[in-house]
Amino acid sequence: MKLVVTVAHDRDKNRITEALLRNGFQFTKIGSTGGFLREGNITLLIGVEEKEVERLMEVISDSCKTREQFINVMPPDAAPIGTFMASPVRVLVGGAVCFVMDVERFERF
């Protein structure tokens, strides 16, 4: 058995959870916040048999795509009044990060 910990952007949460349910995957959903952009994420704990991992990865990959977003490098309240503000920077957001781990033991009560 494997535990797949998946972190996806908040904007993808409906698409990924619906796709997982449609494909018969059960999961536990945890709200989380990203460290770089400080935006909302969804963290999913998904237990699957080893033979199902590749199919799960396909469902996640089809549901979460990266996209470009412009962000301000420095928050407006961090600079003194009259200070030059840098132009917004283009970054990639979205998509998903998956960690696949071995499960030594699994019990359901």
At a glance:
The protein has 109 residues and is of the alpha+beta class.
3D structure, described in words:
The chain has two helices and six strands. The protein has 109 residues and is of the alpha+beta class. The protein has a domain of 74 residues: 2-Layer Sandwich (Alpha-Beta Plaits), CATH 3.30.70. Helix 1 runs antiparallel to helix 2. The radius of gyration is 18 Å and the shape is elongated.
Class from secondary-structure proportions: alpha+beta
Secondary-structure arrangement, i.e. CATH architecture of one domain: 2-Layer Sandwich
Given the C-alpha coordinates, what overall shape results? elongated
The Rg value, from CA coordinates, equals 18 Å
Q: Which CATH top level class of one domain fits? A: Alpha Beta
CATH topology of one domain: Alpha-Beta Plaits
**H and E order:** EHEEHEEE
How many strands appear in the DSSP assignment? 6
Strand content: 35-45%
Helical percentage: 10-25%
**Strand ordering within the main sheet:** 2-3-1-6
How is this fold's topology laid out?
Elements: E1 2-9, H1 13-22, E2 28-33, E3 40-48, H2 53-63, E4 66-71, E5 89-94, E6 96-102
Antiparallel strand pairs: 1-3, 1-6, 2-3, 4-5
Helix pairs in contact: 1-2
What are the salient characteristics of this protein?
two-stranded antiparallel ribbon; 109 residues; alpha+beta; 2 helices; four-stranded antiparallel β-sheet; elongated; Alpha-Beta Plaits
